[in-house]
Amino acid sequence: MENLNKLIDQLNLNKNITLEDIPNIDLYMDQVIQLFENKYASSLRNSDDKVLTKTMINNYAKGKLFVPIKNKKYSKEHLILISLIYQLKGALSINDIKATLDGVNKHILSEEVELDQFYESYLHLNEKNVEEFKENVPLHASNVIEEIKSLKEVDHEYFEKVLLITSFVHMSNLYRRLAEKLVDEIINED
Prior knowledge:
Layout: H1 2-10, E1 27-28, H2 29-40, H3 54-62, E2 73-74, H4 76-88, H5 94-109, H6 115-148, H7 156-189
Antiparallel strand pairs: 1-2
């Protein structure tokens, strides 16, 4: 269990781009990439992975995942949306992300939304989710330890890890599938 706590610490779960991290001036693409690299590089699984690339941003723009840019500069609203896309892409398809954020983009264009307040709510929920996650991991671990006792003459340490992996992936899939159902509702409402 102590090992799980070390692994959780290595996840850098509280790394998020906050409103304070976003400058009050528009940024060029290279500056956007640097901001994201500075914030999220430590949370990458492999050192040769990229947090964000020009190609990714261009694909998000072509796919209309965020409002059009002006003069090759990205506003605070763009950075908030790119941050949301960055978080969502781990579980949802680009089409699902587009469907999810389409209404947000429409509200931005019609100036009907305080995007800062919405993003603060998102960050606040992230903090709560991290705390809940940290509380639930030991529960999963104790369930696995209880199950592993029934296995005879096996490498308990190895099979404990395998059962933990399958349990975590299963929970992840359950949440992803529910998120997809909510995306479907958004699509059907349009």
